[in-house]
Amino acid sequence: MSLAERLTPKQPKVLVYDIETSPHLTYTYNLYGADIRPDMIVEPSRLLCWAGKWMDAKGVMFYSEHHNDRAEMVEAMWHALDEADIVIGYNHRGFDNKHVMREFVTSGLGPPSQWQDVDLLKENRRLFKFASNRLGYVTEVLGLETKMDVGGQGLWRKVLEGDEAAWAKFKRYNIQDVRVTQLLAEYLWPYLGLPHMGLWADDLTCCPTCGGSDLTPMGKAYTRTMSYPRMICACGAYCKVLASGQTRPL
Q1: Domain total of the chain
Q2: What b/e readout covers 56-71, taking b as 16+ CB neighbours within 10 angstroms?
Q3: What is the CATH number of the domain that holds 124?
Q4: CA distances from 217 to 5, 11, 51, 71, 220 (A)
Q5: Nearest to 190 by CA among 213, 208, 168
Q6: How far apart are CA 145 and CA 186, in angstroms?
Q7: Domain range spanning residue 212?
Q8: Do 148 and 243 lie in a common domain?
Q9: Could you tell me if residue 196 is inside a domain?
């Protein structure tokens, strides 16, 4: 049974998303160590497009300033985040979230409702020591489908020039990043620091990682002063059981 199948309708709405942005366009007198002041900015970075996928859905949403009205693109992003309970991305806490929040505030939109982030870059750094933490490298090492090779910054230039073929490739690239991010999330799910999945089903006795009930006793879990029954779920994640019967991640 896949992870998406284990996440029942009583489980949280999980959004996987990724954005692409334009670079800052500036005047500069130096190529290295340039001191760029705000009055040297010709055009600041902006959201060019975004792709998003609900964990339990087959299709990927895609909006761009080329394929849609900018207001439509930004509002669709706002509604997706507002609907999400958990948001998964790769470095999205430090990059994607901040860019889209800038778009919201400059568009006169209020903040979306609160969600919980699972940033796979931060999780990789916390849990593992890969030679590189780039998304493409990690997925290749794990034998997963990986990112598209678009040949570097030249694609962004052509996109900014409105080239139709470049935009078609850009769309495929953005959508592929979302699919790859979901595959990595599913592969790493038992390892991840997640909110307790039983919160949405109002059942804190289930597996806190996937919300499943297929739990098998696996001895004891020990802290410095306490011991707890330890369980393993069919999803591969371990948890401990409190005296109340509620489960907690180890």
Answers
A1: 2
A2: beeebbbbbbbeeebe
A3: 3.30.420.10
A4: 23, 24, 40, 52, 9
A5: 208
A6: 12
A7: 203-249
A8: no
A9: no
Residue 18 lies in a domain: yes
The pair of structure tokens assigned to 143 is: 């034998």
In a domain, 197, yes or no: no
Extract the tokens encoding 128: 């593992």
Helices within the chain (DSSP H only)? 3-6, 70-83, 97-106, 120-127, 135-141, 154-160, 164-188, 198-201
Reported as a single tens digit per residue, the pLDDT across 57-77 is 999 999 999 999 999 999 999
Among residues 66, 42, 52, 45, the alpha carbon closest in space to that of 19 is found at 52
pTM of the complete model: 0.91
Q: For residue 45, what are its two tokens?
A: 């970075």
34: tokens are: 């340039």
User: Whose structure tokens read 């038992």?
Assistant: 190
Residue 58 counted as domain residue: yes
Chain segment 133-154, per-residue pLDDT in tens? 999 999 999 999 999 998 888 9
User: Is there a single domain that holds both residue 172 and residue 150?
Assistant: yes
- Burial of 96-122, coded b for 16+ CB within 10 Å and e otherwise, reads bbebbeebbeeeebeebeebeebbbbb
Q: Which residue has the tokens 């996987």?
A: 16
The answer to whether residues 68 and 161 belong to one domain is yes
